[in-house]
């Protein structure tokens, strides 16, 4: 390994320590010793082309120090694009939905610290991806205790080869990470680097009593990282972590996401002034998380008016009801809706509650999954509870 690569690794580790993402000497040494560029020799960066279209362009290290420096920035690097949505728009640019990435190092470090591993812990990672996280875990625990699964056999084989380059051979398997790992092993820790709509039963069944599951649970509007302890009755209880971050959704197809079917929009029914703006929703992650509890079957999307091209932030429900506010004009905010006006009334009520409680952060909310598969969230200070839609 080159001296410049070692310097980049040490610099990244120092940066993660200063930011508070790394909180222990053990993980500091491991981030300084495991090369990210081995696992991400090429990636996609998004930029505007001359026509003003946001496109993905392929980048690579190509043995160049200035390019290698990009791999060691604290940022997520997209490594694959959904071929069903990809479209080449110029000689070197594609549009499309990302399907795999190398996670932002500060998010990885925060999750690994939250995982609270001990010597001898057996770990299952959901979503092998590039293999970089498996390498970090192998460096800490030894590769014989690290298991990982990914839906994409090509990604997995590439990760296996890159892990071997630096001397690691964790137990890797191809399969749906939301199902059981294909062995009879049980695990002290499960960490997921993809999002799921709820904690799968298979994870609970393969977790030892008093084991920990750390995963990104995605609701319709927002989601977040939860750290859950599993008891002997296969109940999970814990809460949202102070480590913030989101992951791409888990896939059941190796390369693409399924197309979502939605009901047609309800016709416009009216408009009125509102106390909640698009900026309020966009600016405050904990408030979006609260909205996800309050409106568990609702999506948050961006809407472009076909006539004027003006942009709005829109909440929409499965039955076609919707409500939107202008994306950029907050001077006299007006809400427009189709279907029931009650959708936006729920938003305003949640905004009032969140402000009245002092704008609590995400780690003030608990999360649990019962043995029958129901899941719920609650506000830790007073126990206010939200029963969440079945995943």
UniProtKB/TrEMBL annotation:
Keywords assigned: Cytoplasm, Methyltransferase, S-adenosyl-L-methionine, Transferase
UniProt-listed InterPro entries: PCMT (IPR000682), SAM-dependent_MTases_sf (IPR029063)
Cellular component GO terms held in the UniProt record: cytoplasm
Segment forming the signal sequence: none
Classification via SUPFAM superfamilies: S-adenosyl-L-methionine-dependent methyltransferases
EC code: 2.1.1.77
Example GO molecular function: protein-L-isoaspartate (D-aspartate) O-methyltransferase activity
One Pfam family of this chain: PCMT
GO biological process: one example: methylation
Residues in coiled coil: none
Compartments it resides in: Cytoplasm
Taxonomy, superkingdom: Bacteria
Similarity annotation: Belongs to the methyltransferase superfamily. L-isoaspartyl/D-aspartyl protein methyltransferase family.
Name of this chain's protein: Protein-L-isoaspartate O-methyltransferase
Origin species: Sinosporangium album
